[in-house]
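tokens incoming
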């Protein structure tokens, strides 16, 4: 059994494989390299067979999204650590060892991410993860280095390894034992927010989630869906509600969901002002899907007695960002549970 398996989930991403896979192979000496293909219709698998025959391949029969694709792949791969790596990520040299060293020295760490910087402008953090993920009391995610659409310049202000709430799925290190202990990724999410749900379930079991900035990678981002794509809007809003129902403490769940309905309504107004009618419909569709699947989602709660874990921001990030003008992580009041 390998100690570290790096798994790239691919869907019609042959151009990304050509651009970034050679660097992954070069800079991941000692790790097994896998490509799990989500039923691509391009020549991704032909490219691998011809130019990288030593890379392990898993060819899925249908596109199962991020959650389903990785869920099936990780059922087949045996390793102490999994590294879930987006195909549009450029890794640096020595990107694996700092995180594995950190996790080896602390068995309570179940997941970890590196510093995620923008591939197109490497002075800045990248949207999907930056220097570690957090959520506010209503379940809205943000990052150390990125709040909503504001990306901070990396001035080494977040170079300390800290405990976070969620680690990005763009480059996610997982202790395999802990991953399987909580049942793995939820395939009903399909894509988006599934890594936050996984990290929350791990935290509910007492595990820690970390960011280790000694490791750095560079993410293109938007390789599958752009940020303003209505399908992405739908998945983010729906899956965020799924996540709350599955993981939030029972005593305040209904109150939090009620506030979320209000805040999601305000998001709809914002889309209306911008004439983004497709995104308004996406929010409505997300809510109807959530109502329809509420009972199914509620049954997935793994422990009815858990309390709110550490690192939840005890305020509304929407209010802090839009009304109080706090655009950078370090400007937030220290309101943590």
């Amino acid at each position: 059994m390998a100690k570290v398996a790096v798994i790239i989930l691919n869907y019609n991403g042959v151009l990304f494989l050509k651009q970034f896979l050679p660097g992954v192979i070069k800079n991941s000496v000692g790790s097994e390299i896998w490509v799990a293909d989500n039923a691509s219709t391009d020549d991704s698998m032909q490219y691998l067979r011809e130019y990288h025959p030593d890379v392990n391949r898993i060819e899925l029969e249908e596109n199962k999204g991020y959650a389903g694709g990785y869920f099936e792949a990780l059922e087949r791969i045996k390793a102490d650590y999994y590294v879930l790596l987006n195909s549009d990520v450029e890794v640096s040299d020595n990107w694996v060892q700092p995180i594995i060293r950190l996790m080896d020295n602390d068995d309570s760490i179940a997941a970890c991410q590196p510093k995620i910087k923008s591939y197109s402008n490497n002075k800045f953090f990248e949207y999907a993860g930056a220097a570690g993920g957090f959520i506010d009391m209503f379940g809205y995610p943000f990052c150390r280095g990125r709040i909503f659409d504001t990306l901070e310049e990396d001035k080494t202000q977040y170079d300390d390894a800290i405990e976070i709430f969620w680690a990005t799925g763009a480059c996610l290190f997982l202790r395999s034992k802990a991953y399987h202990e909580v049942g793995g990724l939820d395939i009903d999410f399909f894509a988006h927010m599934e890594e936050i749900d996984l990290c929350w379930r791990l935290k509910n079991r007492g595990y820690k989630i970390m960011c280790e900035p000694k490791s750095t990678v560079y993410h293109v981002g938007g390789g599958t869906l752009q940020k303003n794509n209505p399908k992405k809007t739908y998945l983010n809003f729906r899956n965020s509600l799924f996540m709350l129902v599955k993981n939030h403490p029972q005593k305040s769940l209904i109150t939090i969901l009620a506030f979320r309905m209000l805040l999601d309504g305000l998001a709809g107004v914002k889309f209306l002002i911008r004439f983004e009618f497709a995104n308004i419909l996406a929010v409505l569709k997300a809510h109807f899907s959530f109502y329809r699947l509420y009972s199914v989602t509620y049954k997935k709660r793994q422990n009815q007695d858990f309390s709110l874990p550490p690192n939840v921001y005890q305020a509304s990030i929407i209010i802090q960002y839009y009304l109080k003008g706090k655009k950078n992580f370090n400007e937030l009041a220290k309101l943590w549970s």
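note: The longest helix spans residues 250-273.
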